[in-house]
Amino acid sequence: MELFYFFILDNKYFVCYSNLGDVMSIYIHIPFCTSICTYCDFCKIIYNEKYISNYLDMLEKEIRERYKGEKVKTIFIGGGTPTSLSLDELKRLFDIIKIFNVEDIIEYTIESNVESIDEDKLILMKEYGINRISIGVESFDNNTLKVLGRSHNKEDIFNKIELVKKYFDNINIDLIYAAYNDINILKRDIDYFLKLDIPHISTYSLIIEDNTMLKINGTKNINEDLDYEMYKYIEKTLEDNNYKHYEISNYAKEGYESKHNLVYWNNDYYYGFGLSSTSYIDNIRSVNTKNLTKYLNGNYKGTEEKEDINTRMENEIMLGFRKLDGINIGKFRDRYGKDVEDVFDIDDLVRDNYLIKEDNYLRINKEYMYISNEIISRIFN
Question: Where in the sequence is the domain holding 211, given as residue range(s)?
Fold first, then answer.
């Protein structure tokens, strides 16, 4: 969904674990939604009660077949809209998650839409140890929300987030910008976000994806110069208000960076449970089936590909350069037995200040993060 990357790694569809021994992170994909947004090309299905029980049964079967008892440091339940499930269905899901060894867990996140939040669900989440909630707000502008196919409004957002804050302090919202040609809408959206006083925001420039209603209806992307102006406005305003820009689309107050998503950006091993999820374990990238019927019949396997060392090093660059801190040079050497500057021709980019080498890290100069794709192309060419 974002504008600034080559390697599309969607945290909604993955389960992951780090390369550090037997400590891992878990992602569980729940594909059900009460409605389909006009911009969404994720693997999703309109909520239908008759599928839920079977889906959860097959999810448990997959987990029991693949999980090896490792300690879990983070869990992320994504979708879809996990909170579109009923209270009893959520309880069943959370009971399945008890399979995992969570004695040392540090972050347990669930995604939600505004309209599917209620107090009973929040109480249940708290009881089961969830400590972070990510909410698909997308905009505070009612007209923009209609264009995006969302069913909530600005008043709903404030009411529901105030309710969430009774139970959770680690809250993220997703915000979509560049869905309009008026930067004043964005400025109001950022002002409203700051009024909420929550610690994390993910900001996404709207991309018109194939097979979405926006694409079918002929919607066009906004002017690139205006998109850039919006990107820089977000960056400056949030940083001026003590939010750290730690990844190309993510901002957090100190200590509230997404520990789960950092596993992806650090290019650690991960694996996914649920429909369409992707795994990367022992240099093998595998993708679960996207076919609900197959999954419900217990056939969750899709494609599988073993990555050679060149592909792995390229992924290290593409993912690592999403972070403002960039790539740990020593970690790269330890992983691949080579120095990054011996593998990739970066001398000109360092000389011209597009890349900065400092304190054992190699990173894209913050002033050029918006054109990170172009810089990475130059590295690979």
Answer: 23-265
